């Protein structure tokens, strides 16, 4: 499997949903020119949706694994397996890089590890759907702030209304510590987008991503061992952790790489905005986490705000070309 080039992730910075994570956040390559249209587009869209479903159901499986290995242990297993797979497939060169290159990839790896660790701490305390919705606010804030257009005040207000409803007017229905972890994960997701782009400009193809994943795995492994100890050596736990890594990292990257060769990055971003709804569905089907009508409305508002921010960014990008 070859993963997407992280250099063009800024084209999807307005997307308010992802993971990622190797995490949820995924790097977005520029699509090849002259891609097929109409029926040809259906295939890539289906691949992206399948990748999003894989990520969120992988996250739901990770939640069910936490009683066996703990939140930190699950993250350590996921990062470790994903790093091994990416390093074996990408085989990145270790020579020929400057200190700045290595500094960038190390910070990228730290950001990736922090994003995953904070998010998994969140879903250990609050349902998956609300956690993803709150995490989405990081990329959404980045999109709104970078755009500097008045219409983005509307999208920001819509998102805040969704968050207000999600918390029942004060987050009394959600664990405040879980909410704080989700918001912190969103901030790390925004940072992930920035450093993913910088890493992609300095390393060819997915080499930087593979190296950053290895950095994240090395940093997080001691935390996982400290929390879970010998539980991480249990064959069933290792097997389930490998499945989580494949569902949440390896498989989505493969599907999105195939799709984004023909799919515009803006379309990808809009599809990623649906991830809170997918996460809520996965939480309901696998973890029996039901949502109240008010929480469902809150998630819908955040999705609408995300899509609106993406469309605003797309129109802004097209405006100069239309004037020429």
Q: Could you please describe the fold and organization of this structure?
A:
- This protein is mostly helical.
- The protein is 74% helix and 0% strand.
- The chain contains 11 helices and no strands.
- The termini are far apart.
- The N terminus and C terminus are likely disordered.
Topology:
Blueprint: H1 39-90, H2 99-123, H3 128-135, H4 137-147, H5 151-166, H6 176-202, H7 207-228, H8 235-260, H9 265-272, H10 275-287, H11 293-323
Count of DSSP-assigned helices: 11
Mean pLDDT: 74
Strand content: under 5%
Biggest sheet statistics:
none
Kindly provide the radius of gyration, computed on alpha-carbon positions and rounded to a whole number of angstroms: 19 Å
Briefly note the structural class of the backbone: mainly alpha
> Which H/E pattern describes the elements?
HHHHHHHHHHH
Number of strands: 0
> Span from first to last CA?
40 Å
Shape from CA axes? globular
Residue stretches low in confidence (pLDDT < 50, at least 5 long) are: 1-42, 320-324
Give the helix level as a range of percent. Answer: over 70%
Record keyword descriptors for this entry.
324 residues; mainly alpha; 11 helices; 0% strand; globular; disordered N terminus; disordered C terminus
